[in-house]
Amino acid sequence: MITFLTILLGLAMLGTLGVLLAGVLGMAGGRGNSRRSNLLMRWRIGLQFLALVIFGILLLAMRH
User: Structural domain tally of the chain?
Assistant: First the structure.
């Protein structure tokens, strides 16, 4: 169970990093599509929330 949660946490963190980099590169490229930026921001926040929830569950699982 702990191994599965650790893998899920790593995937959520990598997903967050990927969306963050996509947003930064999109802004740096000067394309400036505000709809795409807002969509990426929502995805990043959702993935960060998911990573925090998984992290909390992982901590609770390791306590027992």
Answer: 1
